[in-house]
Amino acid sequence: MIKLLAALLPVLTRTSSAHARRRAAAAARAGLFGAGALAVGWALAAASAARAQNPPPAAAGSNAPAAFAITHGPFLQAPSPTGITISWATSRKGVSRVEYRLESATQWQTNFPAHHGLIDADVTTHNVALAGLEPGTAYRYRVVSREIVEFKPYQVTYGATLASPEYGFTTFDPRKPAAAFVVLNDRHEKVEPLAASLAAVDWARVGLVFFNGDAVNSVESESQLYRCLVDPIVPPFATRIPLVYVRGNHDTRGKFARQLLNYFPTDSGRYYYTLQEGPVMFLVLDGGEDKADGSSEYSGLVDFDPYLHREAEWLARQIQDPAFQRAPFRIGLLHIPPANDPDPKFIRRKWLQDHLVPILNRGQLDLLICGHMHKYSLHPAGHEGRDFPLIIGGTETVIRGDVTREQIRLTTTDLSGRELPQLPPIQRRSR
Ligand SMILES: [Fe+2]
């Protein structure tokens, strides 16, 4: 068997990076995949990567379990100049990898998702982070999953291997002279209008899509997240353009809310972070819940006050960062819009106005994009002490930004594709 493995490993190595080769070789030597024959099978699967199987689920009314299939995705997340995360789900538990290559090259590389020395396995949710990529570069990829039929401590029995069709993406590039993005918000599980909105978008040049909070009413289950958020975005854009999920207050509610980052991971592991594409430094911010922590609606299970203070401290540091200060434009995404009016129940808008707006003013923010109010509105710079314009998306709007080194041009459309009134173009400040 050892001889057979030795003979087959070169087959695997033709399609894998040196790092993956070392891992696979070690796995084969250590019997990580159980019996040697199983390692051989995985190696053969890596070499052949049968594509586009996605076998149909069992017939309606049948008691037979659904066939092993890719059920949701793949979709792109956590974009950066040197990395991206590819996510998908399978109908049964398995182990997965992503095969990828430069669009300009023929040699495939392989990346397995691994944590603390263990390859993610026996799971139906797959997130594979690619790292060490070239900025502003086109890549091709396919996702591969292998069913785990039985997982014993010393013997794992594998089933079928699936591969997706081939897709492409381009890594972010801070040196790029222009960028385009799209923002949707507050879709609240209304899948059909969401699909209609996405069908009306001209995707040419769009590099990222923000979901600016409240995709669901409360987070209840994995199937709900796939149905309301993932499935509608895969056909129109998400296999090639990354989703950036900004947490809204409804996304903090429900028994499954604590699992959200398992499905929408970020590089920082937090819901607030920066992201640069072309001339824009994006601030992805989290406004937490809209009412005070002690409100009876939360049943004693939220603790946003210290969390949001830590976010404010992070933001104050972030605006000092040289990359932030060098960026021609700075755009914030925050679900709950800051406001000056105190409200005894809905305290968060005033809190954000008092705690984040002064920092955003100091950071010379160029634009803040919010949602939450379910009504589209525009608030020019200078209103309520904010030195930057604020745009609040409605429940059926698509806000598109086209940014060069000189200006931000915004276009908002409604569900029928009609253009709505908009802020005038935002010119680059002299800093
Ligand atoms: Fe909201």
Description:
The chain has 431 residues and is α+β, with helices and mostly antiparallel strands. It folds into two domains: 2-170, Immunoglobulins (Immunoglobulin-like), CATH 2.60.40; 179-427, Purple Acid Phosphatase, chain A, domain 2 (4-Layer Sandwich), CATH 3.60.21. Helices cover 23% and strands 29% of the residues. It is built from eleven helices and 21 strands. Strands 1, 2, 3, 6, 7, 8 and 9 form a seven-stranded antiparallel sheet that branches. Strands 12-11-10-19-20-21 form a six-stranded mixed sheet, with no helix packed on it. Strands 13-14-15-16-18-17 form a six-stranded mixed sheet, with no helix packed on it. Strand 10 (179-184), helix 4 and strand 11 form a beta-alpha-beta unit. Helix 1 packs antiparallel against helix 2 and helix 1 packs parallel to helix 3 (36-48). The structure holds fe (ii) ion. Fe (ii) ion binds next to loops.
